[in-house]
Each structure stands twice: as C-alpha cells, then as structure tokens.
Design goal:
alpha/beta; Arginase, Chain A; seven-stranded parallel beta sheet; 9 helices
C-alpha cells in the first residue's frame, strides 16, 4: 500500500475561513506520524493538478473564482493532484491512501461548502475515465456527512455509483456498509472518501477506532471480489486530532 502526501499540506494558512476545522494547525501531523511509524507505507509525492483537470468537473467561472484566492487555489489544486496520483497508482493495482486538504466531497460543479474546494475524488475518477483506463466506478463515502459534491460532479456518469453508509449506532452503520457491499456492482475501480468525523469523540459520536479497521477490511474484501483489487482512498473530514492518526492507521491496516 502507498500513501500520497506533500509536506505543503501541513500549512494551515491556505484557508480564508476562521472556522475551517479542516485547516486546523497541526491536523495532519499526528496522522502522518502514525502512518509513517507503521514503517510499511512508502510515500508518493504529488504535483498540482492542471487547470484542464479541474475543468473536467467544475465550471470555468467557479475555477476562476478560486484562482482569485492564490493560497487556497494552490493548496486545493495540490489536493486534486494527490487524488489523481492515488487513482493512477490504484488503477495499476496498488492500494493507496491520499492524506490531503482541503477535502472535496462537498464541492459541486459550481460551488462548495463544508471546508471543501474542488471535488478531489470525482476529479480523480474523471481523469481515469477520460484517459480510457476505466469505464465504471463505485464510490464509498464514510464521512459523517453525505458527499453531495461528488454526487453532483459525477451525476452525468451512470456507471459511477456512490454510497454513503448510515446508522445511528456503530453496529447499524457497519451493517449498512456490509449489506450494500454484498450487492455492489462489478466496476473497474473502488474509490473511497475517507472521513473520520463519525468517530465517537467527533461530530458523529458513534464509530470507534476498531470500526475503521472493519470499514477498511470490508472495502478490501469487496475489491478482492472485483478481481482486479483496484482501490484508493482520499481524506475528507476528521477533526478530533488526538485520535485522528490512529483512526487513519486502523483504516489503512484494513484497506491495504
């Protein structure tokens, strides 16, 4: 399994919102420390996405509006580049997890909310589709909030399906994911929006660290059933910093 990360993601100054939890100082420090200390995950360094890659899923006017905020544009474009690199590695058969910010699953074609800017996962999938390497995809978004932006950007692609698990308890949540994966389609790649804010001490107040390992293992088993095992994940939410690293590591251990 490979990690995708750039040291620039440690810089919190990109955000223009004083209440941007995703841009919290030091948010990715514990995560990368836990993943690196595992000692088994090589880190691949991404480059910024091109403007043409952004325009696959966003309107010209929206991209231009973000360009007026140079720090945000640079960081968000790097996040898209990281998602694209993760997808490129995954389509060659190597599971990947991209540790990025800003997140992307609330970024629609012409707007965004929830600390998001560009639709990282959706743009990575469109990159693979338009280069002829995939024709279908299944997206699992286990963030506390529904990935409405991913849904909007991919809405014209019927061979790309999206599922957000739901449950008012840990057991119900995991059951909903396992139940859906049993009937999930045969696709060319599995993409995951990996949000950790359903954690017991975070916004969702239900999942525990072991549950993230279970989520990763359920997704791994689905990818194995697909035959090709192509899968990648991109970080979305997760704001309880003391445990964010160990939750991400638990997921990666299951997903790898």
């Amino acid at each position: 399994m490979r990690l995708v990360f750039h040291e620039s993601f440690h810089d919190s100054s990109y955000s223009i919102d004083d209440y941007d939890n995703a841009a919290a100082e030091g948010r990715l420090v514990g995560m990368m420390q836990a993943l690196r200390e595992e000692g088994r995950y090589e880190v691949a360094v991404p480059a910024m996405a091109s403007r043409a890659e952004l325009l696959r899923g966003h309107t010209e006017s929206y991209v231009a509006s973000i360009e007026l905020k140079p720090r945000l544009f640079a960081m968000a474009t790097l996040a898209v580049g990281a998602a694209i690199l993760a997808a490129d590695l995954a389509v060659r058969g190597e599971p990947t997890f991209a540790c990025v910010r800003p997140p992307g699953h609330h970024a629609s074609r012409s707007s965004a909310w929830g600390h998001c800017t560009f639709s990282n996962v959706a743009l990575a999938l469109l990159h693979l589709r338009d280069s002829g390497r995939i024709r279908s995809a299944f997206v699992v978004d286990f963030d506390q909030h529904t990935g409405n932006g991913t849904q909007d950007v991919l809405r014209g692609w019927p061979e790309a399906q999206i599922f957000n698990p739901y449950g008012d308890s840990s057991a119900h949540y995991l059951w909903s994911l396992e139940e859906r994966l049993q009937t999930a389609p045969q696709v060319d790649i599995l993409a995951v929006s990996a949000g950790f804010d359903a954690y017991i001490h975070d916004l969702g107040h239900k999942l525990r660290t072991q549950d993230y390992f279970t989520i990763g293992r359920l997704l791994q088993a689905y990818a194995i059933r697909l035959g090709h095992q192509r899968r990648f994940a991109v970080l979305e939410g997760g704001y309880y910093l003391p445990d964010l690293g160990r939750n991400a590591l638990a997921f990666c251990r299951g997903f790898e």
